[in-house]
Amino acid sequence: MALLAPSIMAGDWWNIGKQIEECIRGGADLIHFDVMDGHFVPNITVGPEVLSDISKRVKVPIDAHLMIENPDRYIPEFAKAGANWISVHIENVPHIHRTLNFIREQGAKAGVVINPGTSLTMIEEAIRHADFVLLMSVNPGFSGQSFIERSFDRLSQLRQMRDQLNPDCLIEIDGGIKEENIAEAVRLGADVLVVGSGIFAHPKVEDQTRKLKEIIASAKAI
Ligand code: DX5
Ligand code: ZN
Questions:
Q1: What CATH number does the domain located at 3-218 have?
Q2: Does the reported pTM lie above 0.90?
Q3: Active-site positions?
Q4: In what order do the strands lie in the sheet with 109-114?
Q5: What share of the chain is helix, strand, coil (3-state, %, to 5)?
Q6: What are the boundaries of each domain within the chain?
Q7: How many CB atoms lie within 10 A of CB 106?
């Protein structure tokens, strides 16, 4: 069954511990942790110290999505802080093969992220070496943006590439995934669904997480 990864940047930082517990009670499989530096993307979030405080208290794996310049420099810190999955953008990593290996050497699953405006051919080679590919379905930087419809065509293409080049590589999708389109994302081959506002904009985080898990459970990949 596909995995659900609530993106906590869409949550309420005042109550984040409580909200993470609610997601986990609702069946979250991973906690998606967005790291932004105000340079690679026009927003700033949190770093390894916050990740460490969370990882000490939760049992589900933490999926760190690095939207920062020079991610190589910070990979060891995020791994040490307890990130179990770490992904970097193809758009700002010049030596992706080396970086993916570096992430794995630190004991985490290694992922490559691709923005909506970047051709999928850019990750054709990296896919062979990645544990997962993260397909952005919004331009990275903010929660609560609308899903870019073209992303579904790209998801289908990516699925074909993955099946051909590295069937063990998981496909994660991030941005604008909600109750209305999550089943279609699973149908087209997403293995990991990141959901921010589609969970945290709801007053009952636990119920909403459970509801999305039920939709995922009844959807089937084609
Ligand atoms: C956007 C982040 C996402 C974001 C998703 O740059 O990578 O993880 O929080 O939020 P929604 O699901 O609201 O688009
Ligand atoms: Zn993300």
A1: 3.20.20.70
A2: yes
A3: 34, 174
A4: 3-6, 192-195, 170-174, 132-136, 109-114, 85-89, 62-67, 31-36
A5: 40, 20, 40
A6: 3-218
A7: 16
Name the pLDDT band for 113 (thresholds 50, 70, 90): very high
Under the banding of pLDDT at 50, 70 and 90, the label for residue 4 is very high
| Contact status, residue 41 vs residue 67, Cβ threshold 8 Å | yes
CA 63 / ligand 1 centre spacing (Å): 13
The structure tokens listed for 203 are: 């007053």
The residues lining ligand 1, judged by C-beta closer than 6 Å to any ligand atom, are 7, 9-10, 32, 34, 65, 138, 140-141, 143-145, 174-177, 194-198
CA-nearest residue for atom 6, ligand 1, is 140
CA atoms within 13 A on the CB side of 35: 24
- Ligand 1 centroid–CA 196 distance in Å is 5
Contact 179, 212 (CB under 8 A): yes
Instruction: Return the structure tokens found at 171.
Output: 């496909």
Burial pattern 196-212, b for ≥16 Cβ within 10 A else e, equals bbbbbeeeebbebbbbb
Residue 178 alpha carbon, nearest atom of ligand 1:
12
